Structure formats: C-alpha cells, structure tokens
C-alpha cells in the first residue's frame, strides 16, 4: 500500500495529464486570505482552503474516469464531516492518563439493555466508540449511491501545541507508554516530545477504532503523520511526512510529495479498502484503555521543557520513494511478557502503510495491550480473508451480491405457509419453511460466530436517529433479509416499532415490510460508532424514493402512496414520519411500502358511552374526534405531496 503505487496507477489515465487545479491568479487570491494559525479551528480552515479543496477536486476527477475506478478500485467520492457535539455534553472527553482498565466485559446484550446499572452509561459508551465532541476530529466518508461509508479519520493539532521538532523527535524511537510515558515526569525535550507524540497518536487511534476506520492522519499544518491499523487492531503503523522538506527542486517526482499529493494518494488507499470485519472490532474491544487528554498533558509540561531543544541524532530525511523498514513502537497499557508477541501477517511487512522511506526515524508501529480472549471462532476465516484484503483491491463479500427473499417467501416463513418457488433463494430453503422461532435461534447463533470478512451480515450504510440497517443471510437456509440494529438504550423504541408492525400484520408484505421479530445479540455488532445489541428482522422493502431514478415509479405514485397510507390509517396507526426517506420503492415488484414506525401511534376508537346530558361535553368530544380525523387526513396529504416532490423532475 505505497503512495508511489497509487501514483503509478493514476498515470495510466490521460485524465491526470490535463489541468485540474485553479489558475495561478486564483491561487494567489486564496493565499491572500490565509491567516496565521492559532487554534485547531484556524488550522482546519487553512487545510480546507490549501489542501482539502484541491484533494476533493482530484478525487472527484478520478471518480469520473471508468479506467481509474476499475484499476484502482475506487468506490466513490468523499465528503468531510465534523463530529463536534455529537456526544452528550455532560460526558468527560477523557480522564487523567493513569486511569486505565483492561479486558472490558461490557459487550453483552443483557448488560447493554436490561441491566444498565451494571454496565457503562450508554451515552458514554457511544462516545468510546468514536462519537466524541472533539472539534479537532473529522471523518472522511466514501460517498456512493447515496450512502456514506466511514473511510478515513483526521486529527488536527495546531502547530504551537505540537511542533515539528516534537513530532520528529517523539516518533523517532521505540515507545512503550507504561515504561516511557504513563506516570513519568517529562524531564528534557526528548521525553516531553515522546509524551506528546504518543498522546496524539493514541487519541486518533482510539477514534479510528470507534469509527471502524483503518486509515487516518494527524495534521499540524507543518507535518502529516499517516496512521494505518491493519487486520490486527492491536497495532497501528505510522509514518511522518514533512512536505516542505520533501519537495525538492531537483527531484523529478517532487509533485507527488506535496501535501495535496500525499493526502490524495492516502485517501485513495482508504477508498479502495474494505471495512474491517466484526472480528476486528471484537479484538479491539479487548484492548486496554489509556484514557488521555492531550491538552492536560500539554498543560502539565513546563514551557521551559518544550523550548529546550536538544540536538537530534537523526534529523528528518526527505522522502525518496525507496521503500523502508518499520521500527516497532509498542504502546501497552500493561506490558505483556517479552515472550508474548502479536502475530503479524507477512503481507504487512512487505507493504508499508505509508509514504515515508526513512528506515527507523519517522515510521514505526504502536502496539496496545491485548488479552487472550481476543481470538474468536471465526478467527481463521477472518485472517484468511483479511490477508487478501491487505494486498489491495478486494471483491465484495458474497452477501452483497445475494438477492433478497421475496415478500411472499418471508410471509411463508413468518406464518408457516408454503414456499414461494419464485424466490431467488428458494433452492436453499429446503422442502418446507423452518419455523419463525427456529429462524431467530439460528440467526442469533450465526451472528455470534460468523464474524470474518466473508460473514453473511453486512451494513447497508443507512442509519436513522436510533438505528442502522444490515443485510443478513441465514447461511444454512438462504433466507436473506434486512435487520434493523439498535443500541441497548433504544430497545424500548424498537419494541414499540415491532408492536406497530404487529398492529399492521394484515398489511405486511403489501404496504409494510414483514416483521419476523427481535433478538438480543450474543455479541454486539459494531458500525460507525454504534454498538448494536438488538436486531429486528424485516423483509426488504426497496430503496427510498429520494434515491430512486426509475421513471416507471412516477406514473401513479400519488395513487399508490395514498393507498398505502389509507391502509395504514384504516388500522388506526398514525405514522408521524411521512417523509420520502420512509416511503420505499421496489424496482422488482414496482410497489411502494411504508417503513420506520418507531414514532408511530395507535389511535384506538373511543368506546360507546351513555348519553351525556351536558351539551358542552358533547361538543368537546366531537371536537376531539374531529381533530383525530384531521391528523390522519393531514398525514395522508403530506405523504402524497412529499412523494410527488421527489419525482417531479423524473421523465415519464
């Protein structure tokens, strides 16, 4: 995974021989607007104007070239998102660095849901998985077909908080935090630099683990520190890049060493990579915690120590694309015995994750502690698939190409009806359907053991306010459907939604999806900062009309949506969320369905009562009944209007 290989791949297209950047006059104008960097916010603004906008143009340009998309395995363009204030404001961002724990045992579904007092608070647990409110952390998402997939993380650190000398000095030798950093007095510039560098790498490493991201970089405006977490999450490889020193006038490849070129090539590596499997997250959950706040460390260091720069034995060496050997820098919350080594695939030694060629001074790896329980039953499967993934572009897992079962098929599974011979997976279902409860038992067991790259469960990259959708296939019987996952704190909402589906049971398979029930996962599923511990299984209903471009759905959409909502309302259910994202269109059946009933309300009819002698009470009761009737009418009108607005620009 070298930067040079990416640029060699780009050279096959004529597209990158054509102008892509703004004119020199435009660049001079941008330069005139730049201001000195005094904070992470200022650094972010600087990087956006100088580096990220240019990188965005290059990625967009590469994504428009079919040859490059195929040869480099590019799967979409990118969007930048800040996660400021996504977490709760009353949670601490971090604690003093000496507060540590190992072998956390808080991943059970029961602990997350029914016994919250025995597990960490759900809100803080979410933050531990990368959903923090740090203003200096950004996530780059791969955007394709209306879906956002986490791809790369960025940590901005203002140069006055982490100087270039501190980066180069701090990352030039092996670091074992318990031995060299934790609870150690920072005496001398070398120790101070080592402590600061270890802290900032650890912070971004933790964020990457939480987001399920294997690529990231630290940016100070003067230097870039590229990070890569391989298939073994107990290790993070890093590489330092100083563009001002890397770009030399007499170097034919100097363009490739600019900040824009380095970040661009690194992002392409992230875009072509496959998200890590669940066994990667399982292993990450066993790592020890070094909770550390960078600003606290910075505050504790006397200014005189940061200014006392001792001569470095090996100063930074500009890059020359000649390959390099990595020097191990082990970070351990509690050191293992010297004989305990983490197995590293050979591919990782052959493919450096970063562009830096310096043999031991600006590249290395960081090894947090890991417990024996990190191995799982699916370990061999994950390692086999993982090694193929590390080598470059990989094929999509089999689950991505499996067709969903038909509505009629899953109605048979839910109610013991005959098989649907037209279901694309009918040949896997056997002579007759298994029972619904047997399906739930089997799929729960499968989700606990099938957790490698080839697992029959994958995120659909569609999330709402309380859950995310997954595609699941029961391997033994071929049933392929959708699971809505929620965290423990949202189980009540998921149960309410199932109750609404039960109320709409006569409409399942026609106007609403078929609901097969809820399970508590034996092991959590991790995705984009979430820890999903409850799954509700539904039939595939289609794509949101927001994302559909099929002209066939335009004809009669008002009538079809109206029929769906009238049927729902007839059963006294008020949806309360009649937005286009919840009105789905199935291009195969050419039908519309309504989904997402977590906000829905059942409006039961008022029972018959004796005649009220008080006329005022009669009038009040009529007014209430009229109001309820108006709620249904208003929702129907809103749903139809929203649907029509989505297809207004589609041709007939």
UniProtKB/TrEMBL annotation:
Residues 371-383 have a biased composition (Low complexity). InterPro entries: Kinase-like_dom_sf, Meiotic_Drive_Suppr_Kinase. Residues 103-133, 303-398 are annotated as: Disordered. It comes from the Eukaryota. This is Protein kinase domain-containing protein. SUPFAM superfamilies: Protein kinase-like (PK-like) (SSF56112). Residues 303-312, 387-398 have a biased composition (Basic and acidic residues). Residues 123-132, 319-335 have a biased composition (Basic residues).
